[in-house]
Write a structure and sequence with these properties.
alpha+beta, DNA polymerase, domain 1, 4-stranded antiparallel β-sheet, DNA-binding
Length: 376
DNA sequence: TCTGGGGTCCTAGGACCC
DNA sequence: TCTGGGGTCCTAGGACCC
């Protein structure tokens, strides 16, 4: 793997793109960076002979779904979350590659290290996305260009960047012209450009909401933004109703979340064929509990709530949880509680998915320096 | 053709306490 | 004996995101 050239590291820091130090609060400028077809791009670096071909990263089982498809494969209608069986029918000539998440995590870490060398305020979202706060930079556009070039130079990976006055506008801008996009939008510019687009364009408005809106005759973002708030409140509840209208108007005051505390951890598996009865399920529950506890113990995480999750053959999902008096992460306890919950639920139909979860994770012990600050 | 795995957040109802 | 409201905790389901 190429290292970041020394002369690139910190270039933005020392340069005139740098944050302007003054009393007045500068207007907010956020960038959203999205690596283009990340898993496929990483695989193509290992197997350059596949460049230009339809490539699909997907598991091999009968119920696998596509993790990422190359842009060549997308032309055949193969996208993330397409069932792999369907992908094979749509694009039989595609090259199927098994996912290697350990490798993707490592490559993601390299990218995020490049970003951290370039900007101070960074929110990492999953393996292939990040928000950058460029507020106060004299030349935020130039800084974002520089970041994009640095990622390409250091990792060989291409990304799309969106710039805007909020996370929402930046995110939508980064999606607008990918791959290899670079789009800056104002809030008004975003409203205008996407007035005719489906509400589903907005992250946070999913397929269910799009359908409900459609049934109400609201089919575009422009229409949603102009709908009376009272009507949306009646349809979606007081909070969600107001929220949907704000999103459609590209109103978004969220700050970057520089660090996040994990609240739950889980392991789940979908079976190649449905299982029936406790006798078939218990050994799986045992294995999942073990995987989960090994990881919890390694990171010294404990949680007070143990839960299970089942998906039946009709795709209905059922969860059961029990909160304990103390936070736990030991296999004996997690396995015992999980198996009691499973026995009590005693699924009446064939089961396609089983999962174990520990939630209500205790907050990690603060570092000594933090404790000092708390006492001051 | 069916629909992964690992998460977060929201809602709603019930228990319980003041 | 009946009737309250508010706050917190817990559980179950579901929408959504990457």
């Amino acid at each position: 793997m190429e290292r970041v050239p020394a002369d690139l590291v910190g270039k933005v820091r020392s340069h005139s793109y740098r944050r302007d130090v003054s009393d007045a609060k500068p207007p907010r400028v956020y960038a959203h960076l999205d690596l283009d077809a990340f898993y496929v791009s990483v695989e193509l670096q290992r197997r350059p002979e596949l460049r230009g071909l339809p490539v699909v990263v997907a598991g091999s089982g009968p119920r696998a779904v596509v993790t990422t498809a190359s842009y060549e494969a997308r032309r055949f209608g193969v996208f993330s979350a397409t069932p792999a069986s369907r992908a094979r029918r749509l694009c039989p000539q595609a090259v199927f590659v098994a996912p290697d998440f350990d490798h993707y995590r490592e490559r993601s870490r390299q990218v995020m290290d490049v970003l951290r060398a370039q900007v101070d305020l960074l929110e990492v979202v999953g393996l292939d996305e990040a928000y950058l706060d460029l507020s106060g930079y004299a030349r935020p556009r130039a800084a974002a260009r520089q970041v994009k070039a640095a990622v390409q130079q250091a990792t060989g990976l291409c990304c799309s960047i969106g710039l805007g006055p909020s996370k929402l506008v930046a995110k939508v801008a980064s999606d607008a012209e990918k791959p290899d996009g670079f789009v800056e939008l104002t809030r008004a510019g975003a409203r205008e450009r996407f007035a005719g687009a489906s509400p589903g364009l907005i992250p946070g408005i999913g397929p269910k909401s799009v359908e409900r809106l459609k049934r109400e005759g609201i089919e575009t973002l422009g229409a949603l933004g102009e709908t009376a708030e009272m009507r949306l409140r009646e349809l979606f509840g007081p909070r969600m109703g107001a929220h949907l209208r704000s999103l459609a108007r590209f109103e978004d005051e969220r700050e970057l979340e520089l660090s996040r505390v994990r609240k739950s951890e889980s392991r789940e598996t979908t079976f190649d064929r449905d299982l029936r009865g406790l006798a078939e399920l218990m050994p799986v529950l045992e294995r999942l509990s073990e995987q989960l506890c090994v990881d919890l113990e390694r990171h010294e995480r404990r949680g007070r709530t143990v839960g299970i999750k089942l998906r039946l053959d009709d795709f209905s999902t059922h969860t059961r949880a029990r909160s304990l008096l103390v936070a736990v992460n030991d296999l004996d306890t997690v396995r015992r509680v999980a198996s009691e919950l499973l026995s009590e639920l005693d699924p009446p139909r064939p089961v396609r998915l089983l999962g174990v979860r520990v939630a209500g994770l205790d907050v990690p012990a603060p570092a000594p320096s933090d404790q000092l600050e708390l006492t001051l």
